Fold:
Amino acid sequence: MKQLLLILSLLFYSTTNLFAQSNHKGKVLETFQVENYTYVKINENSKDVWIAIPKLDVKVDDTIETSEGIIMKDFRSTSLKRTFPEIIFATKATIIESKNGKNATTTNKIPGIFNVSKVIEHSSDLKGKTISFKGKITKFTPNIMNKNWLHLSDPNNEKTDIVVTTNENVNVGDIVTMEGTLETNKDLGAGYYFKVIIEDAKLVK
Structure:
């Protein structure tokens, strides 16, 4: 655990007390919408669990599945004016069964391949979309919250920089083409904020 916290501090230049978690799935018992998040209480294996997810139009009695996340203890939500003894912040969620019979998808694939500069330039238009992008790996940090974390730049301009999460194994200096979902203004709490991030990226062969 000490090693995990050290790597987190080196990656994000911050310290915290967070713990990696696995995927979660269950029926929604309660839900609240705030500016940046949707809060849901689900029943998972006969246990009630609070999870904060990216904005999603979810209803009570829907069944959702979330990505792995991080636990926050005694988390105070200023928007809801309440404290959660324990809440999980997940980076992605999908409605897999809806009471109105419609399942939700949160990504749409955009054609073409973007370089890192174009990703940053058009990030507001690409929010929530699945994109293909190409860049040079300048930093690789493995096994944080069950994912590998990359920093990518344009090959001829390392001042550009974008953070990518993936399960792929790559090397610093590699120039790769990947596909993933772009999110903006991603706030994981405890000072972990990303103006632009690409999540769950896969190598494009």
Confidence is low (pLDDT under 50) at residues 1-17. The domain at 109-203 is CATH 2.40.50.140 (OB fold (Dihydrolipoamide Acetyltransferase, E2P)).
